Amino acid sequence: MPFTLASILIDTADLEGESTFWHHLLGGTLTRTPTHHFLQAEGFPVIVLQLAPDHVPPTWPTPEIPQQLHLDLRTDDLAGVTQRALDAGAHHVTSNVYKSPSGHPFCLREG
């Protein structure tokens, strides 16, 4: 039985901030409800930002609170996308690893 990845859900206590970040980084269209924001960006399944008022951001790479999600994003314009991520509010962790405003880690890779 074949499967297709239909969506990725990302918990956040700051629904507007987290969805604005991903929308700024990936483009596409953003549809809002009071508890979920749906981002449809070319080349991705639907990214659903889900309000989780008690969400505690991961502390990864320190072990207290492990990462809860990790995305690897590839691009042909690593320098441009890196700057776009930082302008959108990403936090640089190490090398090519960044965190979203809610603390979810992701990598930016060339290729």
From TrEMBL:
* Top-level taxon of the source organism: Bacteria
Glyoxalase-like domain: residues covered: 8-108
Q: List, alphabetically, the InterPro entries matched.
A: Glyas_Bleomycin-R_OHBP_Dase, Glyoxalase_6
Q: What is this protein called?
A: VOC family protein
Origin species: Nonomuraea salmonea
